[in-house]
Amino acid sequence: MADTEGGERRGRRRGRRRGAETESDAPKQVIEQRPFQQPRLPFPPTELLSADELEKIHQSSLTVLKEIGIDIIHEEAKAILKEAGADVQPDGDRVRFDPELVESVIGLAPEAFDFHARNPAHTTRMGENYITYCAAASAPNAADMQGGRRAGNREDYRNFLKLGHQLNAVHIWGGYPVEPVDIHASVRHLECLHDMLTMSDKAIHAYSLGKQRNLDAIEMVRIARGVDMETLKTQPSVISIINSSSPLRLDTVMLEGVLQMGRHGQPVVVTPFTLAGAMAPVTLAGALVQQNAEALAGLVISQLDSPGAPFVYGGFTSNVDMKSGAPAFGTPEMMRTSIIGGQLARRYRLPYRSSNVNAANAVDAQAAYESVFALWGAVMGGVNMLKHGLGWMEGGLHTSFEKFILDADLLQMVTEFLTPIGMTDADMAIEAMREVGPGGHFFGCEHTQSRYKTAFYNPIISDWRNYESWTEAGSPEAYGKANRIYRDLVAAYEPPAMEADRREELDAFVARRLEEGGVETDF
Predict the structure, then answer these.
(1) ω before 110 within 30° of 0 (cis)?
(2) Is residue 96 within 8 Å of 327, Cβ to Cβ?
């Protein structure tokens, strides 16, 4: 997105290439923020491995798939693989993949696709050099200054939706920001997706936890978007994360998600959860080989069943603390695997998912520097889908309201950094230097005065006053300021409009499925 307006670019840049919100649609301005707009990586992604080293990972992955194999715990998936020529263990789950079978599906999935929201202004591009920010997802607990850390619940879940709807740094929902465990598991997907589709108009995620939950989610998105099923199949509108059960296993509910989403033209993100030293080899090279083998197995199943179905390559390889066994995030090791994961995704011509994560228990310096390390590993690796972009804490065990706000600021700063600087004649500022001359200052010159509101990034949290004026203002610190902003945003929330007929049909569908009991569970 080349700039044409120099220093005034931020004021004029009212949206992205797929349209912008109108003034009436825009949320209340509790905070100053950038317009809803996907950043694009303006430079080539970093490559840590040579072409030969990258090919060595690929060939080693093929060796794992051929000689060791993957446990595929799904009868239909095994039948699909056997028909395609894979070696399926009789009376067992182990499947071994011939290298030619793996190579045959590379290139079938699209390199990029549009990801449709019910509000077209929030439709995003997944792939190429676009970056999509997601809120944190799947944490069992929530936390804030007032209530501390507590079990996930619907009130906190809805408050995160209120935040994410108003924050332009949230491009799509990557899952439930916190798991509302006070809703029974049999109907939780119905209640939560209904909230997500009515309290926000951004594109959504649905968990792959069995066939019926996938089908319910797909139908709810179809209704909310007001399209027929054939149209939905050509317009990806709901995404799902598929985690392998590392090491070297894909289980029933995850594979059901791969099959059902693909058959309906909806994208899956196959992300092996490979922590070096625990669920993967302790060497980074070994962990990446395993990650890659598991991801390729998912790709084969997806493309054999639904050739051309949208598919995202997911990387989530980090390490454990060898003293305690606890997961570690935002480490130098994770930065390297994030960058190499991007190289592998480009090798297979697939969009790439990585994450903004940390293992800190409090919103403190550790949370900040680990998040920045994880984030920059992802960005420099060419990430297209940034999972857990806002609010993730404690290795994913809680989502913090205050961290949500801090991360919104951080992601806006990243977006600003990735935006090309102005290079017009006016940006060169020759006349301004002529006006000020040697020994003067630029505060009062016309060039500064006409740009002072838009010249630089305006932070949500950072406080750049001197120490004396800062103490006179009550010595506000980032944590307290983030707490105040999150509570102000929740109070200012207004739900987005939804067409009456769609809302009526969605309500009726959810009411019927609730009456039917949702999905059978064991508890």
Answers:
(1) no
(2) no
